[in-house]
Sequence to fold (434 residues):
Amino acid sequence: MRNLKKLYWIIGIFIIMYFLPLGNPKVSGAIFEAFKLLQWYIINHTLACVVPAMFIAGAISTFLSQASVMRYLGPEANRTLAYTVASVSGVVLAVCSCSVLPMFAGIYTMGAGLGPASAFLYSGPAINIMAIFLSARVLGFDIGLARAVGAIGFAFIIGLSMAFLFRKSEHARNKAAMAMPQTPNPTRPLWKTSLYFICLVMFLVFSDWYNTNDVTITLKNEDVMKVSVQYSTQDFMEVKAYNADGTRAIDAVRLDRKDIAKIIPEDNFVMWVHAIKWYLAGAMLLAVLIMLKKWFTRAEVKEWMTATWDFGMMIIPLLFGGVFVTGFVGGILPEKAVAAFVGGNGFLSNLVASTIGALWYFATLTEIPITEMLMRLGMGKGPALALLLAGPALSLPSILVINKIIGWRKTLAFCILTIVFSTIVGYVFGMMVH
Fold:
C-alpha cells in the first residue's frame, strides 16, 4: 500500500510537470508567489508557532494521562463541561488553523471524543480575544459582535454535529479505549504538570504574538491610502497600497531592512507586548527547562522528544505542501477576481466566501486586513462574516492534516459543516444589515 501511494505521487507529479505551461507569465508568476508564501510561512510561523505546537502535542501524548483526557473530553464526559473546555481554549490560543493541528492530534489520540476534539479544532484559531476586538475595530462593531457570537456557537454546534454523525464509530473507538489497560497514575502532583503545560502554551502565545500589518500613511499632499503588508521576510517587506475606494494605488513595493527600521509601530498594548515578546517567550522556555530538570526523568523527556518527532513527520510535510498550493492559486486569482464572486449579500456570494475561506490559508489575524480589502472591492457584509467564520478554522494545509488524523469521511463532514453553517449565518446577517 505504501509503494502504491508513492506510485500515485510519482504519476501525479509527472503529469503536472509534463503539462505545466511554464512559458505562460501568469503561471510562472504564480509559482514565484507560491515560493514567496512558503518562505514567508517558514520564516514567520514555522519556528515561532508550528514547532512549539508540535512540542505541546508531544507533551499531551506523553505527560497527560489517558484517564484525565477521557474524564474531561472523552465521549462519556459531561457534555457541558467537555464542550465548554474545548471551546474556551480558543480564547487563550491565538494561533492559525495549521498551528492548532498538532494539539488536536494530541488530545484526539489520547482518547478525546470526536465532538469535543472538533470543537477544539474549530475554536483554537477562530475564537481569540484579539481577533474579536480587531474585527470590531477594523470591520465594524456589527461584524465583530456577529463573529464573536457565531464563532462561540459554531464550536458547540460543529462539535455536537460531528459527535452525532459518527456516533457509531465513536462508540466502537470508546469501547476499544476502555478495553486497554489502565495507564499508571502520574508520579507528579497535578499542579506541577499544570504549571508545565501553562508555560508551554504561554511560550507559544508569546512567540507567535501578533504584529499588526496594516498601517495608514499620510502623504505630503494629505492624501491617505491604506497599505497592506503582503509578505515579510528577513530581507524585505512587500506592501500594496489601496485608495479609499479599494482600487490599487501603486504596484507592490519592497522595503529593505534599512527602510523597515524607519517604520515606527503604533503605540498600543499589542505592539508593546510584541516588542518584548521574545523576552517573555524566553522566560517561559527557561521555566520549562528548569521544570524538566527538576521534575521529569531522562526517559520521560526522551519519550516526549520521540512523540514530538512523530507528530512533526506526520504534519509538517502536509502543511508545507498545502501552503505552496495556496500561494500558487493566490497568484493565479487576483484580488478583484475573488471580490467579483463575493459581491452583495446573496446566498451564492456567501457560499463562495465560505468555500474560499475554508480552502485559503490565513495566518493569525491576517484574515481581517484581507477581508477589509475585499470589502473595499465590493464584498458584502454577509460574505465578509462568512469568510471570517470559515477562514481561520480551515485551510487547504489543515484539511490535508485533518484527513491524516481522523480520515477523509470525518474531515469532509467537518469541512461541509463549517462551510454550510458559515454560509447560512453570513446570509442571515447580510439580510439583517443590508
